[in-house]
Amino acid sequence: MTRRGALLFAAMCVIWGVPYLMIRVAVRELAPVTLVFLRTALGAALLIPFAVWRGELRPLLRRAGPFVAYTLVEVVIPWVLLARAETKLTSSLTGLLVAAVPLVGAVVVGLTGTREQQGRRRWLGLLVGIGGVGALVGLDIGQVDAVAVAEIGCVAVCYAVGPIILARRLTDVPALGVVAGSLLLAAAVYAPFAAVRWPAAMPSAHVVESVVGLAVVCTALAFLIFFALIAEVGPVRATVITYVNPAVAAALGVTILSEQLSAGMLVGFALILVGCILATGRGPEPVAEA
Asked: 3-class SS at 56?
């Protein structure tokens, strides 16, 4: 991996390991739809002026279909499901479950034509990874909400499909335009729902800080870095940041929110990690990226 790729990878490992903590804090006082609206609206407010100034929104018109599809699977659907799930799951467990993204990505890429790895190694990796997910939700962690786990499963599918749409159908569209346009479209979708669920009182300082951090660092800045990472190493290898994101999420959840780190979570994450490495055909020194 190039030095630039390594720096982009390291940045994304940290930046997208943090949101689980911030979301968990924010949904204590905000409805999931309200949180998603604030996150996307603030992010769009930061990026749209620059995108307009550089003329990077107009090219989206010639790729309207793929752009809308990308926005739906990368932002609109997964972000609200993630926020909903974190009203019932800890940030640590949520982050560890999202580690299954590379497994889903390997399946999707294999089914849609351009495969990273096939044969026994890939299928062994998928089986090991599925076993890891089972360990996460079945060992030593008490009662786990099945609906919330299913929501995280949908998030993993979306996060695996989004980069593939980006790499195959939106390569000729400026990255800033895609990011800014996606956030603006998502904010428009959630605006009426957020209006209905708007908080009656001003949220606490911790919630406000979490929302601002999600919008500025984990959304506006993160997507620009993520696009650069995809361009550097490819969409499937880019999802390998999920090897490290869960560890960051778990560490933050345990140290800051005093969440329990159980034996089942450790075993499950280890199995998912091994499964991802086998399924994507990459070694333990990942070269890229939900």
From this structure: coil
